[in-house]
Specification:
Elements lengths: L1 H40 L3 H29 L1 H20 L4 H29 L2 H33 L2 H21 L14 H20 L3 H21 L10 H4 L2 H17 L2 H12 L4 H8 L1 H19 L2 H19 L8 H17 L1 H4 L3
Helix pairs in contact: 1-2, 1-4, 1-5, 1-6, 1-11, 2-3, 2-4, 2-7, 3-4, 3-6, 5-12, 5-13, 7-8, 11-12, 13-15, 14-15
Length: 376
Amino acid sequence: MNQTQNTVKSIVLLITTLSAFLTPFMVAAINIALPAISREFAMDTGMLGWVATAYLLAAAMFLLPFGKLADIHGQKRIFTYGIVVTILSAFCCAIAPSARWFIGFRVAQGIGAAMVAGTSIAMLTSVFPAAERGKALGINVAATYFGLSLGPVLGGVLTQHFGWRSIFSGQCHCRVFILTGVFWKLHGEWAEAQGERFDWIGALISGAMLMDIMVGFSRLPKLIGVWLILGGIGALVAFVLWESRITYPLLDMQLVKGSPAFAFSNLAALIHYSATFAISLLLSLYLQYLKGLSPQQAGLILVAQPAMQAVFSPYAGKLSDRIESRTLASIGMGCTVVGLLLLSLLTAKTSLTFIILALMLLVSGLACFPPPTRMP
């Protein structure tokens, strides 16, 4: 029995770690490939932005609903469906005939990513006891950083020598390996909320809220953007009121109401990551369009950010045990602000040394921020 349990734990750790690597790898690799994609499909700047936004919007809208569905119907089932969706969507992206089809397939890819991300950590915590859980989650997080680190370099190499479509076709093969592991070795199911009713109304409201806000910001400063954002805020209020009333909510509002530290740490994380997420995308365009670097060369520069974050994060974790959480988080956000200010000064003549130093300062802030803002 123990041997069977150990096998299940090993398989779950393997497939979730590979998934944790592939998702950020794809995001980082696509950022490097954007100029090549733009040239092939003759995209303008607005449409090119939707290559990333469509994926992120779909992932954000479906993450919470699929997480709840996994608790009701089975985490392995939703995870498996997610892998199938990511395989099919990556294949379709690789053969996309036009920009509109490509962006549509990116939406499907985001939905698949939400199904996988919403179940991976839950599966780990379900099969690993508390004494072993920290190590398993640490391996999973390390895979995420490794994917972010390798994405710019390998994405640049693939784009330069084999074309941007090779990034998606490579994903298909890796995801098929994960799917094989699920069917061949992974037995059992985990459904912690089996028998509960799914909150369809809450899912629709949360989806509308996220769509209105994200699309609204993309339309600013036009008036339609303002109205969409206001509509999103209204949907947020409606979501909170609805979730506070029903028996089986999509999101337990007591997590927010009963713990101010949880609420404000998540708000701080939202602001922090909103300000920094687009850096690699914008720098990829800057390095290739204004600096004239190849995708491979741009990838080698952009790898500095996730690689240094992987190095600094363990030390930041130790500091969080010695320094008060709000102090360390504030230091991290301060370093991030200075790094962003330096990057805002970039011109066509800015040296690569300056860019790398600004990234190093930014990364020190990114590394210091997460540990103290985790839920106590």
